[in-house]
Amino acid sequence: MKKFIRLxxxxxxxxxxxxxxSNIHADIIVVNKDGGVPSSGINFDLxxxxxxxxxxxxxxxxxxxxxxxxxxxxxxxxxxxxxNEATFNRTELLPLLQKYASQLKYSKIYFYDPSRxxxxxxxxxxGAYTIDNYESVTEFHLDSSRSTSAHGGHVxxxxxxxxxxxxxxxxxxxxxxxxxxxxxxxxxxxxxxDLLNLSVLRYRGISYRLVEMAFISNPNDVAKLxxxxxxxxxxxxxxxxxxxxxxxxxxxxxxxxxxxxxxxxISGWFESSKATTTGTPYLYIIDREGNELARYxxxxxxxPDVANAYPDLPEAGKHxxxxxxxxxxxxxxxxxxxxxxxxSDSRGDHLNYEVYFTKGFKLDSVVKTGNIDEYKNTKNxxxxxxxxxxxxxxxxxxxxxxVYDENNQEIKRIALTLTNRVDVQAAYRTWSTSLKSxxxxxxxxxxxxxxxxxxxxxxxxxxxxxxxIFEIPLNGTYQVQDFVQASSLDQATYKxxxxxxxxxxxxxxNNQGYRFLVLTDKATxxxxxxVNYQGINRSDVxxxxxxxxxxxxxxVTIDLAANEQGKTYLVKSIITEDxxxxxxxxxxxxxxxxDVEQTTPxxxxxxxxxxxxxxxxxxxxxxxxxxxxxxxxxKHLINLGWKDExxxxxxxxxxxxxxxxxxxxxxxxxYTANQAxxxxxxxxxxxxxxxxxxSDLNKKxxxxxxFNPNxxxxxxHHYTVNQAERDNLVKLGWKNEDIAFYGA
Length: 744
Prior knowledge:
Blueprint (H helix, E strand, L loop, with lengths): L24 E2 L36 E7 L9 E2 L2 E2 H17 L5 E6 L5 H6 L12 E8 L10 E4 L6 H13 L4 H4 L4 E3 L4 H8 L3 E9 L3 H9 L1 H13 L8 E11 L2 E10 L7 E7 L5 E6 L6 H6 L10 E7 L8 E9 L7 E6 L4 E2 L5 E11 L2 E10 L7 E7 L5 E6 L3 E2 L1 H6 L8 E9 L8 E9 L6 E6 L4 E2 L5 E11 L2 E10 L6 E8 L5 E7 L5 H7 L7 E7 L7 E10 L7 E13 L16 E7 L4 E5 L2 H9 L3 E8 L5 E7 L6 E4 L2 H9 L3 E9 L5 E7 L9 E4 L2 H9 L3 E9 L1
Parallel strand pairs: 2-5, 2-6, 6-9, 7-8
Antiparallel strand pairs: 1-5, 3-4, 7-9, 10-11, 11-14, 12-13, 12-15, 15-16, 15-17, 18-19, 19-23, 20-21, 20-24, 22-23, 24-25, 24-26, 27-28, 28-31, 29-30, 29-32, 32-33, 34-35, 34-36, 37-38, 37-39, 40-41, 40-42
Helix pairs in contact: 1-7, 3-7
């Protein structure tokens, strides 16, 4: 019979979740924030930092009730008699309910946002779930039936809510429309427990009722309701609140409120049917419970706009006011509300009448705060950016940044020139001192603070720096960069009694001195070699660590006797004070283990290229493939973390020599059969590594060379015997450089 079939209660009351929804409740009193602002010492025209608190809780002597218009938000509800539920409720009933709600003196009615449908909101865990601290919720609907003879209204409540107040509401329906015969025997109450809003609000301890005013499908019902709608609305407001509406009408508005620094400005108006022509007008600041916090005598001004809005009120339009006062300390950080009236005495102790304002405002607390937004440190140089202010005292004295170490000992104090920070002002709009609060400080610390922690305190001092006006510890502790000590053994290769080591060793504090590479037998821990070397420039290291890292590289070849071969070596680099290698200033041990195979002397008649396999290993860090005929070199690199890719191709016993070069800056190897090219590349700074294998004179197996135009350094060239691998790399963007040499 009724569209409420759609309101099935699908949630168990025991698992209801509560969520806060904004802009759901519409207060019938709207604050006009565009009221006129007279001139004063502060330009309040530029200040709009307070928004009225729509969740204002009226003083405790009031009760809060909510009225809901059924359907809406695209859902018309039931239709008939030339209208529908949503339209009738909002265009015909709602204005009358609002009219009489505004005349309540001791109670307060809020209206659920008529642009929304509370049932739909509740389905999405809003709506009824967001209604807090209300005495009751009353929802208005029109019933519907296929039969045009169905007539009368009723009130739906939970079986536990059979109360006199709910019967009274049903009797208002009975008085002006009549009761639905199905519920007349129960005083007009229909007992239901399957409606969502009803069950949610009952679980939350709020009385809820749904008023079916009439059958929209019955024109006679609708005609009765319309002809009595004014009286129906008035009595519904009275029965919901329990307050009889009398001719005593009150109205008020805070048109403008702003607070900045130590002053606040309030302007507005108030009216009452009990207004007197005599008495001293006062504005009172009260808390949520109605307790007085402050009072101020006010000068009343004429408000023609208010007089036009309330022509039936005596003295209407004569109670405008505008007040600018200092903010008492006891109001800081509080939510404040207002009432006004005329007192029979000059002190404001005995009010002839009083009018409450329905909006509350929050006053900011006194603020003393700051923040370090950014900390930068390179070696001894420090730069910090941030802000700080004291809401009352920032305009006094000279601002400084104090720098302290871990032991809270002052290292430095830096005089600051403060800058505007509009972001800080936006966050603290009620304090003008928040604008000029930014700073950017640069300073250096001594070497003794490298590797240590710093913290910062902002202070305003008197001009003689002898007294602190205020201080604000700023957030966090910050590390000063320690002295850099770093190293790398980039390459270690061994061939025919020669161990070639290349890498770098940098110590920021002691990069000058005598440099040595030390080889220690891993098995016996005995030092086998200690070789002095001259540092060479490594552009990659200077890019990383600056000019002080010049000449920190090494590229050293160490001759190993037969008894020094067949060992695994630990390698370290040292920087010393003297040329004998004593008094070590810096020492760096490399993680790389260097394997040196035992070299078997070759038969003088045996060709150096007399081998049958070329090995390929891969460095996943640099992307380079290295080719070597030396199984020992291949194994050594594999031990260092290179990937074993097995035999690249077979080699001839003799043939065209293939030369290898090494770039100590990029770590790249280059192979060429052209001796002139070999010499020219060496002149460009590459290290010669001699003949590493031979190309087959019979050109049996072509070896293809490819170039990666996107690579920079190691891994830019690749050699392969596999045509499929070549073709795949070409598809990926590599350039085919054709046949470089031949395998057997």
